Amino acid sequence: METQMASKQEIAESDSPPSSPKKNIAYKDPDDGRQRLLLELEFVQCLSNPTYIHYLAQNRFFEDEAFIGYLKYLQYWQRPEYIKFIMYPHCLFFLELLQNANFRNAMAHPGNKELAHRQQFYFWKNYRNNRLKHILPRLLPEPTTAPQISAPVPPPPVPPTTLAAPSPVPSPAASAVSPMQYGISSASVLLKSEARNSGVDRRKRKKDG
């Protein structure tokens, strides 16, 4: 009797549907996600290197839809509570560009990789000067007063010129020096000439005598 009861119970258990599987339990990292955070941080910061992006494009990682979704998921690094861990801010700039399919396809060409690397170098080279332009206060230009245009000063009046009378042309006779100019009178001249003549006459008389 007991054996029949045991056989019936075994048959009933075999005919009963299998028990439902256990419900899926959410996965929990043993270190509270610290290792996952470090791995994703390392990968995101690798995107700051155009050569690494060129490597991903040449190996057709950008053709995988799952990888494209992973890049979209990594945008949470732009939030303030995560961005403080970023040491290379250019990675977020390239992460944003990688959301565009045209950029992903263009980075497969070496020329575009060199162009991106060159532009990145120029940004680092001039970053300090460009930053100082926005930080340092700018001096206001001094107000320049427009020069006052004064009325033109009229020239002084020219006095009327009087025509001077032409000076008389000296005649040849007048040009001779007269004894009156030296204070010698005509009488003294005559006396001297007479004295000379009388002296000559006396000499002649002595010779004759």
Automatic annotation (TrEMBL):
Region of interest called Disordered, as start-end residue ranges on this chain: 1-27, 146-177
Stretches with biased composition (Low complexity): 161-177
Protein location: Nucleus
Record carries keyword Protein transport: no
Keywords: Activator, Nucleus, Transcription, Transcription regulation
A GO CC term assigned to this protein in UniProt: nucleus
Residue ranges the record marks as coiled coil: none
Subunit structure: Component of the Mediator complex.
Function summary: Component of the Mediator complex, a coactivator involved in the regulated transcription of nearly all RNA polymerase II-dependent genes. Mediator functions as a bridge to convey information from gene-specific regulatory proteins to the basal RNA polymerase II transcription machinery. Mediator is recruited to promoters by direct interactions with regulatory proteins and serves as a scaffold for the assembly of a functional preinitiation complex with RNA polymerase II and the general transcription factors.
Family to which the UniProt record says this protein belongs: Belongs to the Mediator complex subunit 31 family.
Record-given protein name: Mediator of RNA polymerase II transcription subunit 31
Organismal lineage: Eukaryota, Viridiplantae, Streptophyta, Embryophyta, Tracheophyta
